[in-house]
């Protein structure tokens, strides 16, 4: 289970296509956003938004932290 917790920390759902991708770091989310969105966010901004609410919306993406208990 520890491998899953380490490798699957965040999910990003494209609300236009209903496709989802899983990420393990804020940096990887930042790189993904750069490739699919018109605007960009820094990994620090991504982190703050996730920490504040557990998820956030950006353009056509919904990004959420995965909870493992």
Task: Give a written overview of the molecule.
By secondary structure, the protein is of the alpha+beta class. It starts with a helix and ends with a strand. It has one domain. 41% of the residues lie in helices and 28% in strands. It contains three helices and four strands. Strand 3 and strand 4 form a beta hairpin. Helix 2 packs across helix 3. The longest helix has 11 residues. The model has no long low-confidence stretch (mean pLDDT 95). The chain has a four-stranded antiparallel beta sheet.
Structural class: alpha+beta
Mean pLDDT level = 95
Radius of gyration: 12 Å
- Total number of β-strand segments? 4
The residue ranges in which pLDDT falls below 50 over 5 or more consecutive positions are none
Question: Largest beta sheet, briefly?
Answer: 4 strands, antiparallel
What's the end-to-end separation, in Å? 10 Å
- CA-based shape: globular
Number of helices, where a helix is a run of at least 4 consecutive DSSP H or I residues:
3
Classify the beta-strand content into a percent band: 25-35%
Query: If strands are numbered along the chain, what order do they take across the biggest sheet?
Result: 2-1-4-3
Count of separate structural domains: 1
The ordered string of helix (H) and strand (E) elements is HEEHHEE
Helix content: 40-55%
């Amino acid at each position: 289970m520890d491998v899953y917790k380490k490798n699957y920390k965040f999910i990003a759902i494209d609300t236009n296509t209903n496709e989802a991708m899983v990420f393990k770091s804020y940096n990887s989310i930042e790189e993904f956003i750069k490739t699919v969105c018109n605007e960009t966010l820094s990994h620090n901004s991504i982190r703050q938004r996730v920490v504040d609410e557990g998820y956030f919306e950006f353009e056509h993406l919904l990004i959420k932290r995965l909870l493992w208990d």
